[in-house]
Amino acid sequence: MEMMKMTENYLWHGQTDKTWLHRHFALLVYLAWADVVITRLVLALGGIELNPIMNVYIHTYMGVGVKIGLTALIGLYLLYRKSFIGFKVVNGFMGIIVINNLIALIIQMKIGGMI
Question: Structure pTM?
């Protein structure tokens, strides 16, 4: 009986490495966008930005562009390097940040009597 080998070209039902890398990149940019949107909602409800670097910039459109732009640059680098592990680590980290922001949003909404 011959063992099936998973090649680098086809990962799952004909999906290529390139397809998966682009999906990871899109997820990274989406998570960066979600981070900014939820953070701004929390700030509008009276929360505070704990990141001292972003605290200066989060209130401006330039800061939002820088945040998403830098994250996209990291994603482009990982795309260029074809780093599945890198994407998984960075997307996991960004996912934790977004979940933390959602928790902060719920807390701020409870404090404000919205829920």
Answer: 0.81
